[in-house]
Design goal:
By secondary structure, this protein is mainly alpha-helical. It has one domain (15-50). Helices cover 70% and strands 0% of the residues.
């Protein structure tokens, strides 16, 4: 078994971490938009219909 370096000190976020965070936020935002789109479109049609 190879010796593992203890990661006691926090290193600043790298580009990979930022890319993962941005991708995660984008996926969550897209999911919320997909869920809310029917409700928003029905509200818009109701407002225009009145």
């Amino acid at each position: 078994m190879a010796d593992q370096v203890p990661q006691n000190e926090r290193r600043p976020l790298g580009l990979v971490e930022y890319a993962l965070i941005i991708a995660l936020v984008a996926v969550v935002a897209i999911g919320i938009i997909i869920v809310l789109l029917p409700a928003i479109s029905s509200i818009i049609t109701a407002l225009h219909g009145s």
